[in-house]
Amino acid sequence: MARRQGVSHNEAVRKRGRTGKRRPAADALVFSFLSAADAVEARLEAALSPTGLSLAKLAVLHFLADAKEALPLSDLAARQHCVRSNITQLVDRLEKDGLVRRRPDPEDRRSVLAELTPAGQQAHAKGVRALAEAQRAIVRALKAGEATSLQNALTALTS
């Protein structure tokens, strides 16, 4: 009688655990997570595109709108978690689009402040609406319990 090759049934059950489901390989799971994050980001960027904004531009407008006052570029860079040269380029584009204006900091001659223009306030509101709708569409794509499971998994990964 020939002996079967491979893993015995009992060994396979032990590897699957009590749920009967096999855990995905770590690399496959992490790359799936990164791929999903890229896909979500692409959907959000696409939703903002008709407004003339990107996620990065909307974030700067959002920081300025929340602050309700002009902010130093160095503060914007810190809030955006990027280097000052990136914020300078981003504010350059926003200023060119008429959404932000620069002005000198009256308390520090070396510093420059950025503030929202009325057009920037309108663009911010339009971008927030577009982003919220895209976020709702993403969540609607999940089944009832999947959103809760996903939130729990993300919380576990970030705590």
Structure summarized in a few sentences:
This protein is mainly alpha-helical.
State the main characteristics.
single chain, Arc Repressor Mutant, subunit A, three-stranded antiparallel sheet, 159 residues, 65% helix, elongated, mainly alpha
Describe the structure.
It is a single chain. This protein has 7 helices and 3 strands; from the N terminus they run H-H-H-E-H-H-E-E-H-H. With 159 residues, it is mainly alpha-helical. Strands 1-3-2 form a 3-stranded antiparallel β-sheet. Strand 2 (100-105) and strand 3 form a beta hairpin. Helix 2 crosses helix 6 (118-140) and helix 3 (55-67) packs across helix 6. 14% of the residues are buried.
User: If you consult CATH, what is the topology of the domain at 51-158?
Assistant: Arc Repressor Mutant, subunit A
CATH class division of the domain at 51-158:
Mainly Alpha
Query: Uncertain spans, ≥5 residues at pLDDT below 50?
Result: 1-5
Separation of the first and last Cα atoms: 54 Å
What's the total helix number? 7
Helix amount:
55-70%
| CATH homologous superfamily caption of the domain at 51-158 | Winged helix-like DNA-binding domain superfamily/Winged helix DNA-binding domain
Q: Pairing-aware structural class of the strands and helices?
A: mainly alpha
Mean pLDDT: 88
* Global morphology: elongated
Strand arrangement in the largest pleated sheet: 1-3-2
Fold blueprint:
Blueprint: H1 9-16, H2 26-48, H3 55-67, E1 71-72, H4 73-80, H5 84-96, E2 100-105, E3 108-116, H6 118-140, H7 144-158
